[in-house]
Amino acid sequence: MITNVGLLGYGTVGAGVAKIISLEDSLLSQKVGWSLKLARATVRDLDAPRAFPPPPGLLTTDPRDVVGNPDIQVVVEAMGGIEPARTLILKALESGQNVVTANKALLAIHGVEIFAKAKECRREIFFEAAVAGAIPVIRTLKEGLAANRILSVFGILNGTTNYILTRMTQDASSFQDALFEAQSHGYAEADPTADVEGFDAAHKLIILTALAHGVLPSLKDIQVEGITKLDAKDFDFAGELGFTIKLLAVSARNPEDGLLEVRLHPAMIPQGHLLAGVSGVLNAVVIRGHASGDIFLSGAGAGMMATASAVVGDIIEIARLSHSAPAVGKPSLGWQSLTSERIKSPTEIYTRYYLRFTVHDRPGVLAAISGVFSAHNISIAQVIQKGVDPTGSVSLVILTHLAAEKDLQMALSETQKLGVLTAETKLIRVEDFARY
What we know:
Largest sheet: 11 strands, mixed
Helix content: 25-40%
Radius of gyration: 24 Å
Shape: elongated
CATH architecture of the largest domain: 2-Layer Sandwich
Number of domains: 3
């Protein structure tokens, strides 16, 4: 018995999948019970250089050699982008083929349609590699923690930004210097916008929210803030205050009102927390279930072989099912149906805040700012003031107690009218994991 696999795309991920299937046939046969065979792979250019040279006759430029081919049981979408990936996946499902994809943007934007089609056609669509690379977070949420109400998911979901933030923490690098270093090591693209502005991690967060809570929000419904405005000074203050700065993904049900908070932004994390120690290009996720408690997963979040590892793991799982269709369509996200639910807006969020004001060095400045905060029900927990810089300004750092975002934004707007600021105020949220 053989399960034939067809690839849509033979780039970095596709070549990694081909490498594992080709070189680990004995191992995979022991896991599956029979052989996996790479049958065809579609590419745009037959003569382009390949990270893992394909065997003769494998490559084709016609997707119809894979999609709809009755001899291929599993289609792996490794081309990326929205179209034609979306159309080809839908056609594969309609043709009775099972699908594996690592395309987080496609699932975040068109997941409702794709998962519904898989259920309608009684086919499988697996997507472990779409979130956090080799880390088995999808299967953990869908299967391992199926008996739990998921209270919260916190994650570091982008290796590029985590590498940059690690360099800024450990070496006091500027954002631009850390980004250049990431690019020189191949950890960041020439155009790093999707990573540093948070969109890549936000797409992963949307998928995790669907798995954890049965709700698939759209990108416009969630708060997304990247790392481009972070300043090296704030990493010094973070260390002094006992925190580490990370780009943190949050999908949590607020215990006070029961509403979902889905947000991605830089956050100060206590140095003793598990996520604070996740450095370099690693990803990590902390899942809190009502029965399981906290589950911590960490590992390689990207890269040719790490991503291919997750893809081939999905192929193995599908291969075990591919010779018999299930009696009913299985829910791809672990829920029989997704629900529509309002996501809390950023102005409704309560958290603690780190604020760095750059102000004139004169008496009464702290009192004036404190008065504005008091008028907006914001309590100050800690204050740090540093010496005068060459411009005659001082850094005034304020750490607040729990406060409403809408109150804080109103207070910051008023501080701009005091005539004491000499630069833009820096704001970083301070995450209190115990609240969820």
